[in-house]
Amino acid sequence: MTTVARARARSDRTTVYLLLLPALLPVLVLSVVPLLRGIYLGFTDARAGRDVDTSFTGIDNYRELLSDDLFWSAFRIGLVWAFGVTILQFVLALGLALLLDQPLRFRGFARVMALVPWAMPPVIVGIMWRLVYHPDAGLLNEMLYRGGAEGLRHNWLGDFSTALPAVILVGIWAGMPQTTIVLLAGLQGVPRELHEAAAVDGASAWQRFRSVTIPNLMPVVIAITSLDFIWNFNSFGLVYVLTAGGPGGRTMLPMLFAYEEAFRYGNYGYAAALGNVMVVIIVALLAVYLRRRLREANA
Amino acid sequence: MKARRTTKALQYVALLGYMVFLGFPLVWMLSTSFKPPREMVEIHPTLVPHNPTFDNYVEAFTEQELGRAALNSLQVSLATAVLTVLVALPAAYALARFKTRLGTVALGWVLLSQLFPFVLLVIPLFLILRQVDLVNTHAGLVLVYVVWALPFALWMLQGFVRNIPRELEEAAAVDGATRLQTLRRVVAPLLAPGVVATSLFAFISAWNEFFFALVLLKSPDLATLPVTLARFVGVEGIARLGPLAAGSLLATVPSLLFFAFLQRRLTSGSLAGAVKG
């Protein structure tokens, strides 16, 4: 390299850094640093208040979590919620994506409709479903009455046994669009020739679905189910508005539990510890899932 | 032939089922928003209001708290949109035009940061903002929103920059334009749609956000729309459901417009998986 070229390269690099700095600096200060500090807080006894001494307590928080019944309950509910929503969402979204991939009439309209839940803020989705579940003025109870099943009328969000399923249904509704759109994109990426070749060879629709569509769609499926699971496990706003964790803690997701610990009781360290546990659990579950899928793909 | 027709019919039935599931809650909220208080307490509510009224909308508009919250949301979202684009624009240009490993690092960070629950982020953010006296201010919230929207905005914008042929810039340079002139006369006009889309994205993500606003703003005067609406929930009597539904619908309008704008791209799959819910 000549000296001139080298000088140019150096000035280029300076320009690049100057251009990137205004974006990188805030991300560093308000995203990377807080996250590292948050992880550290999980090993301290930090509490709310301006002049409270914070000291490093090692794994004390985690020992306390292990014997905290409320944590275990939140953890269990979180897993039921995250798995329930992710799996049902995926099945329903796959069905819808397959339909939208067919040459049906009203397909354009249906595609727009499929996007609507996505366009709504979680808080509004929560409010809307409260209207649907409302024991007196709600749509669901009225439909049951009209359908002659008055005995099934319920205080859906207020009853111990129905609160969690009711909330899961809303979770499915709210998250279906992303999953559907991604799967639809994946379906459209499956080469048509493969389908035609399989049809020529006499494969039935079901056989084509199993041996052409599914294998080609697999990478997309793995990506979107993983992301859905992470988002669901960490979700907050929707259930906060629907039930705020009630009745009797029946819908107390881990995030709601952590929020209460941190901002109602001021136990910052404990809440951060809970956050750390959630990260570890998610990473562990994803690792198992991805390894199994990869092994299947290679088998 | 008959089997095929049955399949088609079943497909339409299934599609109808999906549309009812997806659409009905929305229709119900729409219906509720047009019902006068008298109809809210009826034993058997109807889908079509007997005496539809705009009162709920008028009330939602004039309700002091909701009006102020809408104004707060507007301020915060506009500031977020403008700042995000200003900060992202030079960086996106650099990422698209110069080879640097930082692009990969940035994308890696976006993916990695998805793993962490907000609670891990929000406590330290709260502490940091308190140190510089930005807790309970719109400025502090805007800063958080900008950082939150930035990774995706960067990624979106640099895609738009990449679509502008490098040859155009080189041609301008050959014609004797300075770098700045090239950027202003050649790049800026072509980048305008990208800037619009990116600022819309930042606007909507701030407009819809709930958790940070809930934690970082303490005074009700400063609360944004989602927080104020959420506060109505639970304390609302049955008679107040109408205004709540009307306010909620009004609060959804900006993001509905945004999605209408992006709809074509989304369904064609070119942006799929890119927008976080």
Automatic annotation (TrEMBL), chain A:
Where is the protein localized? Cell membrane
Superkingdom of source: Bacteria
Q: How does it sit in the membrane?
A: Multi-pass membrane protein
Q: Which UniProt keywords apply?
A: Cell membrane, Membrane, Transmembrane, Transmembrane helix, Transport
Per its UniProt record, what CDD domains does this chain match? TM_PBP2 (cd06261)
Gene3D superfamilies (alphabetical): MetI-like (1.10.3720.10)
The UniProt transmembrane annotation reads 16-36, 79-100, 112-133, 163-187, 217-242, 268-290
* InterPro entries registered for this protein in UniProt: MetI-like, MetI-like_sf, UgpAE/MalFG_permease
Start and end of every ABC transmembrane type-1 domain?
Answer: 75-289
Q: Which Pfam families match?
A: BPD_transp_1 (PF00528)
Q: Does the entry feature the keyword Chloroplast, yes or no? A: no
The reply to whether Hydrolase figures as a keyword in the UniProt entry is no
Under PROSITE patterns, the record lists: ABC_TM1 (PS50928)
- What family name appears in the similarity comment? Belongs to the binding-protein-dependent transport system permease family.
Write down what this protein is called: Sugar ABC transporter permease
Automatic annotation (TrEMBL), chain B:
Q: Where are the transmembrane segments?
A: 12-31, 76-95, 107-129, 135-157, 190-217, 237-262
Q: Where in the cell is it found?
A: Cell membrane
Which keywords annotate this record? Cell membrane, Membrane, Transmembrane, Transmembrane helix, Transport
Q: Which domain of life is it from?
A: Bacteria
Q: How does it sit in the membrane?
A: Multi-pass membrane protein
Which ranges carry the ABC transmembrane type-1 domain? 70-262
Q: Which PANTHER family match?
A: INNER MEMBRANE ABC TRANSPORTER PERMEASE PROTEIN YCJP, MALTOSE TRANSPORT SYSTEM PERMEASE-RELATED
- Identify its protein family: Belongs to the binding-protein-dependent transport system permease family.
Task: Please give the name of this protein.
Answer: Carbohydrate ABC transporter permease
Instruction: Tell me which species this is from.
Output: Phytohabitans maris
